[in-house]
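Posting this for the archive.
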Amino acid sequence: MAKQFDGKPTRLYTLTRPDLTTHNEFIWVPSETYTFPGTGELCTSGWAHAYPSAALALFLNPIHANYHPYRLWEAVGVVGASDCGLKVGCSTLRLEREVPIPTVTAEHRVTFAILCALAADQPPAFAAWAESWLAGRNKTAAAAAAAWAAEAGAAA
């Protein structure tokens, strides 16, 4: 069943290039509200693209817009489509204010990768290691190797 959206303005985050352009060289003006058709697939000109959190905007940039360098914006939009909650499509979107880009460490990226992996069905040894890593235990390469070795032995 498709998710139903309430049509109310929602706090979101989006990225632009330094010159305030996005896909197809669309030029944004902060504080101006833009309207999009709200039709078609998510990654088309029918939607303005945004993210439910600043962290998702940063982590998914390499596989979505891939802007380097980029600017991060707090925005307000009316959500009409979603990519499993990772990215949203808006029929209206307004850039409210530029947000300082937080530092993303290797540990942040590993945490995000582990959480993504755990969202899918994982072998018990990996899941146990991942939960332990997320809890702050067994963050060594040896612990990861032991989990993989245990899983490989169980699969043999």
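The chain has a mean pLDDT of 91. The longest helix spans residues 141-155.
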